[in-house]
């Protein structure tokens, strides 16, 4: 298209939220996008069809947002391109005047390239490009971008096989997960020209699963290249050179077609109408479509016309012309068999959309007696036409042909003879012959093969207007309380009168109306199921179900939280309490990789703890069977045999110990979560960004997006929870009389029971949802499917860094002072801050602003953690009141303690506040629901993270130092307290400003400020 554009301006949104207004578009360089953020945020609504999320890009080393799965495909291709240096999503807002109207447009991506000009990308499905409105918007945006000297691209659906290969290789894009020594060894080996399967087995001194993952990593880096146009297999040959991918980017636009789809449908309908007027089914020659000069085709969403046909060395080819009068050649085989082209029929003939049923469907509805009657009638027709009841002279019956039906007898006399023989009219015999010639035996069925248009189903002769009104009323109750059938029937009559008039629609009898509503209940469930279930069914997609299909372990990690259908015990009041279960599950093999039971509600720190268990599985329980225990490295023993397992006399095995963990260790690539606050919080998003994880939120109120984990919750309830004391059922209708009185297990005990059931039962039980397409019918369990995934895709080892747990803590940006750092009005200090006190950090951004990142565990605020920039080692910073605490205390507990103590003391300090709170909990005085929840979190017996010792902790752990701290000998004899003497708490100690005479009194010998001004 071509249109007159006015002055083009651009607007940017910076990381601090400021908007850079009206930048002149021709003078804008690519360097201005470095500190920018996406122009718009994505909206979520119930019923949307597309998936939005964040993709961790190896090019950007950060998250890049996408609005649909089609946009995600463009991100994969850009991330794979070695020439791409930066990718920005929703980069800017373009504004201009086109056709005397103000136009605005936000491109989907801006791709910066090292050897070429920047590329602006708009992503649209191919079938939308010819719509006038879409075509015009993309057209003027293309002209504006090209006038700047940049490139413009419209991205559509890429080839399926190439996309599947690229998506598979993208799991190996995080470089820090691979052993550099092994990668260097593979690079030095001469593997060019070798098949992929031979390369996997070329290093026998390394485990094959490790070599497989490393070679796939080098394929992503394009050190090796291979043909990505066909699905990857071990027969693919490794080559050298840049990878060649097709993609689906196009630099131009097809011409707009006004109501193109309706026009094409009209052409098809016209051809179908002509076909029904001329012939019915049964004439095979009439169904052929001529392909020649003038034939119109739908090719890749465009209408093209055949102008010439000719033969070539590669076979028959056609020359076609599109709407832009551009001509190109196509293989006739591709036109007819590839699926990318479809012939538009212009001549009359039978079509697939004829309102007729096929002969197989018509005959299948008949009983055996009816089939015999049809066959007998067909034999009579064959005798009238050919003189033989079999229809062929090669299979004559006894006495055939009879004189009345000989070939020499005129046809009309044969009709009369058959009519006299059967006792019917000649007109009836003629009708049989005509139907038989058109549809063979199916045409002789009573009523013919036409059984209506199929829209009424089991409603028989119901008036379509009555049916539409009934469905309309049933749809109105989708979000309301469940109605009765009688109410719906009573509402139908007055509404029909108001819409169509009195006596225009005949109302059925009451029994018939009930029978019709029973049939409509199958289409629109309203009366039988629960209202919640009816809403779920109504929200189902109208078309084919689509879903994410994982191709390897760790590609998608499902995470969700549910309220357990069993009561737990409150360790504070010894009363029942609700519990929530948070679970992480690998979608490929259904292995449960993380479990955490929390009281009342789930927080982001609990979600991070479950994600941490995916990297660091919990230890196996005592007494677990050997087949339920996984090795510490997370690889099944059937895949990787440990050296110590081959050595005789292993002391640990002799002692009967089963060292191992409760599940496999995985490095997830994408986590799929819902829109609960703990899952999409800033804490979880920052953890995913630091660990290189993409984030894919499910659609609103669409449980099937996380179907496997929702099914796990049901299996857990039916397989374990209903057998435990305190089980209350899934709803109020299933609840016993007083199930809360049967609560028996504490929270940590309930968690261990669930973990053991998962390891000993769930992971070893075959699942119907786990299948291998190459071996249909094979029953696979999650543990076996995990081995299958390792054999297929290799195994990406979990990082062995003992400090990995710090990455899952919550990050607070705080300035450093001479006294340390202050978080939630708590001061922390430690030797790790030496050299950084009072300094401005080198971190930039809207949140940093020169402050330092401090990692906090909200469930234990006695300590926070700081990593020095010079040594990259973690250091523990201790709360100033931590020595008075005998156990961890959470941030919520401290806030509550301050609130409670503030009602009793005018100026309470934190030590006083915590003491008051503990005394209140110990006595059980009027605990509110909030206090009970906080107390329950305090009562957990196991930490969420296995944090290693920091530098200060390592010194304290030395045997000699530990003995000194144990007996208190470093404190002096005066400071050693008698552990048997309990001193009463006397309240807050007086400060320096409590008494006026202290200001004029003599300085004490040990006063810290005694010589403060001597040098002044």
Detailed description of the structure:
- The protein is α+β, with helices and mostly antiparallel strands and 1016 residues long.
- It is built from 28 helices and 29 strands.
- The strands form seven sheets. A six-stranded antiparallel sheet has the order 24-27-28-29-26-25.
- Strand 22 (670-673), helix 20 and strand 23 form a beta-alpha-beta unit.
- Mean pLDDT is 81; it is low at 260-286, 449-454, 641-657 and 968-1016.
List keywords for this structure.
alpha+beta, six-stranded antiparallel sheet, five-stranded mixed sheet, 1016 residues, 31% helix, disordered C terminus, globular
Give the arrangement of secondary structure elements:
Layout: E1 9-13, E2 19-24, E3 53-57, E4 62-66, H1 69-80, E5 84-89, E6 93-98, E7 101-105, E8 109-113, E9 119-123, H2 132-147, E10 151-155, H3 160-169, H4 180-188, H5 196-200, H6 208-221, E11 249-250, H7 260-278, E12 296-299, E13 302-312, E14 315-321, E15 327-331, H8 332-337, E16 341-344, H9 359-364, H10 368-386, H11 411-422, H12 426-439, H13 464-476, H14 485-500, H15 510-523, H16 531-538, E17 556-563, E18 568-569, E19 576-577, E20 579-586, E21 592-599, H17 604-615, H18 643-646, H19 651-654, E22 670-673, H20 682-691, E23 694-697, H21 707-719, H22 747-760, H23 782-793, E24 810-814, E25 821-823, E26 826-829, E27 852-857, E28 860-867, E29 874-879, H24 891-902, H25 910-923, H26 929-938, H27 951-956, H28 959-967
Parallel strand pairs: 9-10, 17-22, 22-23
Antiparallel strand pairs: 1-2, 1-6, 3-4, 5-8, 6-7, 8-9, 10-11, 12-13, 12-16, 13-14, 14-15, 17-20, 18-19, 20-21, 24-27, 25-26, 26-29, 27-28, 28-29
